[in-house]
Amino acid sequence: MCQRFGLLMGVLLITACADPGVQATPEGVVQKVFEVATSKNYEELRGLCAPEADQGIQKICDLGDAAAEEQARFSEDVAKGSLAQSQITGDKATVSLNNEHGKEDGKVFLVRKEGRWYMVSGE
């Protein structure tokens, strides 16, 4: 029993200390959304939304379960966009987005929890 508990704690510690990767920066999270729009690996969006995310942003994170036409529409709309500027204040961030013509066209709001960034809303 003690060995199992020790092994479990070791796995949890390694997981908790793992490199946050994509979620190390707010820009990394939003850039991942653009990459998925192109690659169409929608499952990679899971876990990028905070539990308190609004419905619009949560739909992005749930695209792996969406209908094919919804996935296609997302990819068509988002793949041509890019990051503009970002602003970080403590554990909150705003990442501005450019449309395919390089004009600012929306924002994504993120929060940091335990060293990882998550999307919460957009406009």
Summarize the topology:
Layout: H1 2-17, H2 26-39, H3 55-61, H4 68-78, E1 82-89, E2 92-98, E3 104-113, E4 116-122
Antiparallel strand pairs: 1-2, 2-3, 3-4
Helix pairs in contact: 2-4
What does this structure look like?
- The chain has 123 residues and is of the alpha+beta class.
- The protein has one domain (25-122): Nuclear Transport Factor 2, Chain: A.
- It has four helices and four strands, in the order ααααββββ.
- It has helices at 2-17, 26-39, 55-61, 68-78, and strands spanning 82-89, 92-98, 104-113, 116-122.
- It has a four-stranded antiparallel β-sheet.
- A hairpin with a 2-residue loop joins strand 1 and strand 2 (92-98).
- Helix 2 (26-39) crosses helix 4 (68-78).
- Residues 1-18 have low confidence and may be disordered.
- How many H/I helices? 4
CATH topology: Nuclear Transport Factor 2, Chain: A
Strand residue content: 25-35%
Strand order in the sheet with the most strands: 1-2-3-4
Main sheet, how many strands, which sense, barrel?
4 strands, antiparallel
Q: How many domains, in number, for the residues?
A: 1
**Global outline:** globular
Give the end-to-end Cα distance, rounded to a whole number of Å: 51 Å
List segments where confidence is low: pLDDT < 50 over at least 5 consecutive residues: 1-18
